[in-house]
Queue: 3 jobs
Job 1
Amino acid sequence: MQPTRAFFKIGVLAVALAMGSGNIAALAADKRTPPPELGKMEGREAQAFYLGLNAVMWGYPSVFFEDLMRTRAVPGSEATTGNPRSVVNQFGLVRHLRGPEFKQIATPNNDTLYAQAFTDLSREPLVLSVPEVEPDRYYVFQLWDPNGDTFAYVGSRTTGRDAGNYAFVGPDWKGQLPEGVKRIDSPYNAMAVWGRIGVNGPDDVQNAQAIQDKLRLTPLSHFGKSDSQVPPDMAFSEQRLVYEKPADLPEGIEFYYKLANALKHTPPKPVQDAVLADSLKQIGFKKGNTEFDYKSLSPEEVAGLSKAYQFGLHVMDVNAQTVGTSVNNWRWNPKSGIIGTDYLFRAAWAKWYTGGNAPEEAIYMDGRTDDKGQPFEGSKEYTMRFEKGQLPNVSAFWSLSMYHLSDGSFVENPIKRYSIGGRTPGLKTAEDGSLTIYIQHEAPKDAVEKANWLPSPAEGFYLNLRLYGPDDSLQKGSWAPPRVKVTEGG
């Protein structure tokens, strides 16, 4: 088929309608991925741009998954990622609450200790063994696939706090599991295990670490043979993660080379992805989309694909700050964690909210503007007031976290407070039972205000309100988070 201007215009119109001109304007002052200079595109460049943009939206999560898996496994990864090294099929245990030094994933939490693993089930199932957890301890192991969809949970809400063994089974395995081991089927051989162990304040970190120490992730063939953690299979991990960028790969199109590699492990879904997957052959993909023949592309096609990747990142950023249901200037999305075919939101979710839970486990409410509709600025002072009886309705806990607008990392501050919530020591309620949080860069002088202070950066920021174990009052409209109000003169 010959590329046409009409073909290109349809794609650009769809993107423009999805973004909205107001959304683009709102992002103009942001330091995230700027849109490339598109100029006038025709012919092969235009078609490559359109097809490439579709590929970026659709394939970004699986490419991101493979990159994350690879960077976590390399020697010395802790220095570059803020996480302990975790080879394939082994836990990486984060032994401290995360702070500003962690910048690999945007919008991390400061409420739990993580136990994370990237797994490959192509050889055999893996068995997760969890210890008994005390009655007031929140914990969860979220299982999500390379597309970002959560497909199962192990934890205090779903399986209880007793000790247990859970086998993660890939789509091709045939066999019987030992008695007492519960089966959990994964849609792909690749999957992530995102464990979170609640920490009830700084003095509780060691107790949460003790739970981490008892976790086990065991290949089925070794299960029951020892109480110790099975040593990692380094050869298998290295083979699984092998990747080498070709020296002659044109600048700006490595994403597509990585996509072909990712599709070896996360193939398209036969029905819902069929049309998009078939279109990849028009931009150099071969052998069932597992090879990228970049040498067959014309200079015009290379230029179109390069622009598509940069523009795709920009559209993800816009989507991340605009999509969802808005309640008092807070946004959340009922599709979070289980996204399906909303490819744009799926990509934005991977980039900005990696491994976020499904709403039944936790709700994430994104705050970017004050009560006057203006973006948060570090030069202003704000308050968030919960009236008596109007704190979040949760069975576990809630927290409000502060992030740099530029990269989604925590904000360094003199009191080392990166989030505030129901478990923060020393919070002060007013005589009328209300709770006011003070959000500003400079420390308040009033003692009560300082006790309830969430420090902001000097520049732009955004907030995230987390509800762990939420009830359905938000969905039903019987509860809503209060607006963040700008202080007069602040």
Job 2
Amino acid sequence: MYVAVKGGERAIDNAHAFLAEERRGDPSVAELSVAQIREQLRLAVNRVMAEGSLFDPDLAALAIKQARGDLIEAVFLIRAYRTTLPRFGATRPVDTAAMAAVRRISATFKDVPGGQVLGPTFDYTHRLLDFKLMAEGGAPEAPRAAPAEGALPHVTGFLGQDGLIEPQPAEDTTPRDLTREPLALPADRPLRLQALTRGDEGFVLSLAYSTQRGYGRTHAFVGELRIGTVAVQMDIPELGFAVEIGEIELTECETVNQFKGSRTEPPQFTRGYGLVFGQSERKAIAMSLVDRALRWRELGEDFTGAPAQDEEFVLSHCDNIQATGFLEHIKLPHYVDFQAELELIRRLRAEAAAGATPSLAEAAE
């Protein structure tokens, strides 16, 4: 129970002013601009866009600045802003096979049509601090090839030609929109994927790691990981055809998972899938592993009790805004509640000192 606190407006205003001062930092140091955050902290911007369910690098960079670098607070700001935006319609599903890819790798086949494209990645760095960056010197210009354009067939398609991997399910119905409807359980796969793509990266990563350690029966290979831009198209009823209204950057991961068969399915490879705004490959890989673990029921597997297999546990706890709100509310005034608990403890101690052991019913009164 909360109680009204009178006379706190001035303290709150002062706290806001103090926050703004702390956000600015030392005035003798040049202020960080939104453009600098957008261009130089792009991975943080991408995470805020993904978990905030809004693709807008400028707004995500502004939210990061306003939140003093607290990415969860920035996600909260973006989600709150998104609720104020009108919705004019729905776009067509994006075609990731036509992605202009700057990075595209496969851990299952060395030679794939279109080739392996390493792109910008930390994979081959030495993880040593580069003190040259403190000198604020210009970065060397890297040799750059044009993004791979045209159709880049998905690696899993080659396995599908031989019937070695489960076919992609035909889905003609429009999935429910998690940004407009509350989560309902049991959830179908499209709804689960929505929850995972906007779920907290650390939480999804930990669940994915647990599946690799044996909690979920997921032995996965990265069939393909690709990063690039895709066209966004929207049907215009007045025109009778679709027009391109822009493009967005995405990270897509398809995992190929070992499957020995079940009571309903033959031995074959199965799929895990991840799709995230921006360059967010750790999140996309983790998402695909958890997606596969959650599919145990539709594949006829046994439930082993692994956390990553528990739909209610995963989907009800992966959202960092809900988790933050519930966790941080305990720092708000609970004076009446605590006084009641304090009185109960004092009474129990007094009765215990007097040699009387009250029943649970008496203690609850």
Job 3
Amino acid sequence: MQELSYYEILEVSQTADKATIKKAYRKMAKKYHPDKNPDDKEAEHKFKLCNEAYQCLSDDKQRSIYDRYGKEGLQGMGGGGRSSAGFDDLSSMFEEMFSGFGGGSRRRQNSADMEKYPLDMNIELTISFQDAVFGIEKEVEYRYKKACESCKGTGAKDGKLSTCSQCKGQGQVFMKQGFMTFSQTCPVCNGAGQAPSEKCSDCRGTGYKEVKETITIKVPKGIDDGNRLRVSGKGNIGKRGTRGDLYVTFDVIADKHFQRNGNDVYIIIPVFFTQAVMGETITIPSLTGELELKLDVGTKDKQHFTFRGKGVDDVHGHGKGDLIAQVELIYPKSLNSEQTELLVKLQESFGIESKPHEGVLDSVIDKMKGWFK
């Protein structure tokens, strides 16, 4: 597989100026950042490539060498040839882009301000197909985090912290890969640069306690499986009393008869073959009651009949979907002598029309006879 160039990684031309490269990098880094793609190895790899590409192309000296000699030319520079300005630029970008993603900032923060957990939180709520279609109010019991009062949310006894032994107070740990140096938030102190000398006995060093709460959630009409609803001010509570938001992700139980696709709803209608042949009118169920379905004469198996505006309300209030009835033709599994006789008479009543195969297949049979002479 051909290796992409740094310009191709950032999706810019070789003549792009620094502002264009920086803008492209911000877009790509935000797209593939590990905080937004947890446990995604491919996204992690692309994120590292974006970092590598930007650190080279944002430095005039490295870019000049790369343009002339490619990566091989950069190998000779070693780790010492990299400009720290480019890395500082990356750090400031991440602080700006990911400050709201629970620890995404790469700069060391004041340990008194840092939270040990995201203030926003998510829970899952399972509801029936009917509740999703028509909406409902539901009482939900959940647990949220609240900063421990004894240690002021630090996790340390009496709130006393000491310099982190892992990162030596820097808040970051570094690793080298070839001539590139990468950093990540210290996993011990979470970027604070300080860690508890002794764990708080009340919260066992977690820095928080869990509180049970019951709230009533108004589920809007048309909510779908995987949709998320924000409940303002019902998330975790931080050190300074700031409370985040609660996000409710819906798990909708599938219905036995109705199948949803967006705002449209499908239902399979069993139709006996004689009803299809004659084009009868039958009564079918819908989300709001019974409907009359007028079959075409000679209705085919899997044929669709659409009822406009009889589907699901759009959750954002943009109209309604359709109900699509799909015909499933049913044939008798067995025949008694009387039924057989009646069907023979019916077939004979159509005359030559009841034997469409004769005109077509006879010529094929005659042709095949010539193959075996």
